[in-house]
Amino acid sequence: MDDDGRYRDGRADFIRGAKDIAKVAKKQVGKKVGRGVDKMADEYTRRSYKRFEEEDDDDDDYGGAPGNDGGYYRDDGRADDGDAHSDSTEGHDEDDEIYEGEYQGIPRAEAGKAGGAAGVPAPRLRDPAALEGERRKDQEELAQQYEVILQECGHGKFQWTLYFVLGLALMADGVEIFVVGFVLPSAEKDMCLSEPNKGMLGLIVYLGMMVGAFVWGGLADRIGRRQTLLISLSINSVFAFFSSFVQGYVSFLFCRLASGVGIGGSIPIVFSYYSEFLAQEKRGEHLSWLCMFWMIGGIYASAMAWAIIPHYGWSFQMGSAYQFHSWRVFVLVCAFPSVAAISALTTMPESPRFYLENGKHDEAWMILKQVHDTNMRAKGFPERVFSVTTIKTVQQLDELVQLGDNAAWHEKWRVKLTSLFHQVWSNFQTVFSPEYRRTTYMMMAVWFSMSFSYYGLTVWFPDMIKFLQKQEYRSRTRVFLREKVEHVTFNFTLENQVHKQGEYFNDKFMNLKMRSMVFEDSLFEECRFEDITSSSTFFKNCTFIATLFYNTDLFKDRLVNSRLINSTFLHNKEGCLLSDVSDENNAYMVYFVSFLGTLAVLPGNIVSALLMDKIGRLRMLAGSSVISCVSCFFLSFGNSESAMIALLCLFGGISIASWNALDVLTVELYPSDKRTTAFGFLNALCKLAAVLGISIFTSFVGVTKAVPILFASGALAAGSFLALRLPETRGQVLQ
């Protein structure tokens, strides 16, 4: 009996214990399910009506963990229970395994309809000012969190890969500046370019880049850095390719204009794009290193011109209508950096900062995880996990325009493009809002002064070198007075001579070249000119009696105020009236000078990269501008070709540090949603200043040095003074 009693008591205790365990388990399951249902309801309500919440409820919206509020994700306060798991990650559940740090996606709105759609109050429109204030708060919190995330991702293989990819795009911009200047002497012969036409061809690239910088900079803030850069580089490469084959001046001018429009987006997008993958302690240094690719582009263009253009055998001809000479091969080769940049850029992701600014949390998280994992694997730590589970996203203001499925395709495109234009223009106008107005005006003045002096002087230097060469050439001119020549055959080159009041009877000029030859007040009787190629050759106030011109380029334009008596022109050569051949004779010197001037910026690039984060952007910008201003006064001592080349190298090596600091400062002064818009506008202003500087400075070549020196030094002094009034951005997060 005792055994039976003990058995019954033990059985009753076991049953009571089992019931207690079941109650506890049921309670815990109910709590967990309740939390899940409540969270889905909250998420659906917030995602569906967040644009219409009352501003008084803002405190409730920011109840989650720091850095997670207001975005697509937020932590629930009830997740702090001792037995609860993370809402975004789980350790090891019985049903499924999700490893720490693994992303689990955004709960869709449909998931919450069953649980909590009922009872939601009717939405009410919110004050735009309140929405903008909320957006501003979101941006400030995102800036802080994004910097922390970049610190966790580290700096390594991914950033260096992107560095070389974007470097190719910047290299293409450097090449574009030099192309037209190198091909002008050769293109002049094929297209019969006048001096005004040559001047327009030299400036058209800057005008195209001015338009492109403004357009592509504005679009990059709306449709993305990577996508906009791909479109702009594609336009550049396509029209650069076409410009290599077109024959007429107008078509070549248009292709170079379109090519310039395409490459105009390179600088504002490249620097903004790369900066958004760099932590603040690396940003100034590595953006300065990126500037070196502009120098590499100039070196590439100079080397290719040196190697290709003088080789006239690299050409073919299809009749007299189509000619493909070596300079066209050079134009084609100069499109390679742009094509290479397009190919490499297709392997790189969009800027995660752009995605976060536009409310795309998923895409941004995946890219940042890719950056983290790529760098950790390269450093030998593949086991390190990307611990970020939630990232701040910014409140969106723009609404998509829906036309319905029945609308025509052209109507949809028209509405989309119109909406995009208004968004870009509105974003541009905010650059001049009260918050940024002073900064924008100051930056405009600094950009204009820097560009006006730099581009004006860098074009004035080569023109001055050419002027000095011409002066030295003219100093060796031989003059012949009242010579009488009869029954003589000239079959050798005649160069740099002046013949006055001469008499030539029954003379033959056969199979020769005439360079810089002038005949004044001379008589040619029963003479024969055959197979003559000339340049800068003129017959002034001369008389030709019974003279034959056979297969020559001595067109009547060469005969100034001259009389022709019983004289005949047969089988004139097809071609252009060339006024000077000094460019052809000194082609190697032109390429060599450009090569040296571009290479001279290497020391300045290195110094600015190493010191940018140590002394600050403003000191670098103002200090380099002051030293450049002082160096301008040495121009007065440049009375020889070698002296001008040395001064060109000195000025380029010093001023490059100013440009590097200005690029970094521009990136850091504006927030992410206005960064490329502001940069593009300032870069467009830079190209406008370049056109003005080139036009003004070159007009004083051979006239005076004082005016260019005063203009350049005054602009640089003003720029350095204004630069010190700008805010310092060293050590700050990327706003």
UniProtKB/TrEMBL annotation:
Q: Where is the composition biased (Basic and acidic residues)?
A: 35-53, 72-91
> Which superkingdom is the protein from?
Eukaryota
Q: How does it sit in the membrane?
A: Multi-pass membrane protein
- Residue ranges annotated as transmembrane are 160-187, 199-217, 229-250, 256-275, 287-309, 329-348, 441-461, 588-611, 618-637, 643-665, 677-700, 706-726
Q: Name residues in a coiled coil.
A: none
Q: Which residues belong to any copy of the Major facilitator superfamily (MFS) profile domain? A: 162-730
Alphabetically ordered keywords of this record: Cytoplasmic vesicle, Glycoprotein, Membrane, Neurotransmitter transport, Phosphoprotein, Synapse, Transmembrane, Transmembrane helix, Transport
Give the residue ranges for region: Disordered.
26-97
Please give the SUPFAM superfamilies that the UniProt record associates with this protein.
Answer: MFS general substrate transporter, Pentapeptide repeat-like
The record's Gene Ontology cellular component field reads:
neuron projection; synaptic vesicle membrane
Q: Where in the cell is it found?
A: Cytoplasmic vesicle, Secretory vesicle, Synaptic vesicle membrane
For molecular function, the Gene Ontology terms on record are: transmembrane transporter activity
An example GO BP is: neurotransmitter transport
Protein family according to the UniProt entry: Belongs to the major facilitator superfamily.
This chain's protein is named: Synaptic vesicle glycoprotein 2A-like
- Specify the species: Salarias fasciatus (Jewelled blenny)
